[in-house]
Amino acid sequence: MSGMWSLLLLWGLAAPCQGLLDTVGTLARIDKDELGRAIQNSLVGGPILQNVLGTVTSVNQGLLGYQGLLGGGGLLGYGGVFGIVGDLSGLRIQELTLPQVSLKLLPGFGVQLSLHTKVGLHGSGPLGGLLQLAAEVNVSSRVALGMSARGKPILILKRCSTLLGHISLLSGLLPAPLFGVVEQTLFKLLPGLLCPVVDSVLGVVNELLGAVLSLVPLGSLGSVEFMLGTLPLISNQYIELDINPIVKSVAGDIIDLPKPPKPPKPIKVPPKEDHTSQVTVPLYLFDTIFGLLQTNGALDADITPELVPSNIPLTTTDLAALAPEALGGLPPGQQLLLSFWVKKAPTVTLQNKKATVSIPADIHVLSYLPAGTPEALLELTGVMTFNAQLAPSATKLHLSLSLERLSVKLASSSAHPFDTSHLEEWLSDVVRVAYVPKLNAGLDVGIPLPKVLNVNFASAVLDIIENAVVLTVAS
């Protein structure tokens, strides 16, 4: 049976929230399985054990051999108490069995982490021949949660002690008196030799926790910086992080977009099932992306006949067939230019398992002469309503839009007022083939997800709730 390292992470924290997110932040719930997997991966794929083993081998130069505790002049060497181990050469730590990780979350308190392993020691026995021992170890550590100068959560080792378990003699001969001395010596030395493994594990976990506070680029729109709103909270199944997204311009200035007239209602986050991790993307981030697109002019577009297929011609002849009053005295057969101007930020709605985006636009219809100056025919005010399809990747939530409906009203015309409803189907076809692709190209930047212990959300299940989208992935 392998030994156990017990690591108690002392996070003196309040009880976790009851499923309500009062801020516009991003809520992340990390399942305890993800934390255990992150630690296990750091031991398997990283150089932690090799580095510690190399340090031990380089500094001890033989725990129990020549120049060691049992060497010449040592406790049991020549000139020592018994003088019977002159032939015992250095007994060194040669291997550390890969620990098996298990952990338990302590609600409102911390994490109890166990690493099961054995220590292998090799040397030469006093009677000659190879001497091999295996020692089971129980290292108990206490770690406090602190904050770095940049506001990152960090785990700080406060106490580390070692309890030596069963020692097995695998090969060689070792007299009983020496066996007891070896046991006492290892009991004194192992804390200083093996506690660096705990430090190294904490270093890996700290890097993963610190990655939450990252700056994610949004292409030409700017960037989003994630900051912790509060200290992590702990339930019996997950660690909860309240993460505030801060939107910045390309120059690095914080962008404070206009707030809605009414404060948003608290987000009621659905309960998390066991062995899953969650991240909640608030309505605020959707509004932010579309607000940036609008202020940058990325939602404006000029649509000419070259941008639409031949089955949707843009000519005065087609316009006259739908609304002859719109032409005035303009002759048929001339090409048209449709100019979309979005002067107000779009409205995003998340509710009832559906995501929709409404974009208000001024639509100018002009006669189009490639070598001349366009002539205004009429101006429409319209609202384009889109269905939003959401798809997660490892680090982002991607959006693509499809037109659901378009409604327009006449704002001004060179002719007499007329019924614009006849134009809506024609304009909808134009929007689908020419405007939507441009819109989706601008949305290709996606909505960034915070980095939480390298959880991959590519296979996450999406749940659209009121004012948020919840991504849930099996651990």
From TrEMBL:
GO CC annotations, alphabetized: extracellular region
Domain Lipid-binding serum glycoprotein C-terminal stretches: 273-473
Compartments, record wording: Secreted
Primary location group: secreted
Tagged with keyword Ligase: no
Domain Lipid-binding serum glycoprotein N-terminal residue range list: 29-274
Alphabetized UniProt keyword annotations: Disulfide bond, Glycoprotein, Secreted, Signal
Signal sequence region: 1-19
Origin superkingdom: Eukaryota
UniProt function note: May have the capacity to recognize and bind specific classes of odorants. May act as a carrier molecule, transporting odorants across the mucus layer to access receptor sites. May serve as a primary defense mechanism by recognizing and removing potentially harmful odorants or pathogenic microorganisms from the mucosa or clearing excess odorant from mucus to enable new odorant stimuli to be received.
Family: Belongs to the BPI/LBP/Plunc superfamily. BPI/LBP family.
Full protein name: BPI fold-containing family B member 3
Native source species: Phyllostomus discolor
